[in-house]
Amino acid sequence: MHVVTGKGGTGKTTVAAALALALAEDGRRTLLVEVEGRQGLAQLFDTDPLPHEERKIAAAPGGGEVLALAIDVEQALLEYLEMFYRVGRAGKALRKLGAIDFATTIAPGLRDVLLTGRAIEAVKRKTGDVPVYDAVVMDAPPTGRITRFLNVNTELAGLARFGPIHNQAQSVMRQLKSPQTAVHLVTLLEEMPTQETVDGAAELTAAGLPVGGVFVNMVRPSLLDEAALEAAAGGHRADVATALDGLVGGGDAPSDELVDALLDQAREHAQRVVLEREQRSAVREMGRPWYELPLLADGVDTGGLYALATELRRQGVA
After folding, report:
1. Domains with residue ranges and CATH for the chain
2. 82-86, 91-95, 121-125: least confident range
3. Would you say 89 and 81 are in contact if contact means Cβ atoms under 8 Å apart?
């Protein structure tokens, strides 16, 4: 089970989708799970809104396939009540009375147990002795909420000390803390996302949850060589003019106006490159496997997802 989290705006849903595609190559089968009700996965794959039931949304190279679902808390609770309490038709009455919203509002830990439990059920499901899925990828809540979301046993400790709910929470926690689970963090080469990633990994580790890899998303290439970067960072006009001479073409030296404009842009670019290198070092110091995904100039569409999946495979993610 691969749980993908990240600060808002880092592209965690995109990374989760690309990871699912990468893990499905060569005839494998993966399930992609959405738990936040945003239907972001459906938009990425340009498909109808995902239902509560598993549905194929993509084929992977080599005969693999990706299925997906958006877990509906209300439906998951009804399934849970039917499984353990045989409520049958009473479930519809509970829905009409608003009892389900009430239950998940006063006990948010119960909501998280239902969401994670539905995904873990797919992890454990088998046909005979063969698992139905080779991997399950969850597009999880952001880094700031991920430890609380996954640490359902603690959240439910004061609500259910025994009985089916308690047992379900215990089962969920055993799976989440097992070697079969990895919580991956998505970040950008920017100060705030990187710091939140470092803090999130430490928090997950302290809670006994297994941290997997760090996915550095939307990486932009350096447009200047080292000489031009050094000159731009130092702000030396003559050095910048020389370093950029080859970029403007022609036999004549670039005009003062052009050099000034290029100098401003080059200085901004050099400052960004320096900052990104600092953040990359911070990611490396975490001591986790890390992967870099390029910024897609034309935005993320289905073709872009396949390109990102190929890049992940190249870097050995699957």
Report:
1. 2-218+295-314 (3.40.50.300), 221-285 (no CATH)
2. 91-95
3. no
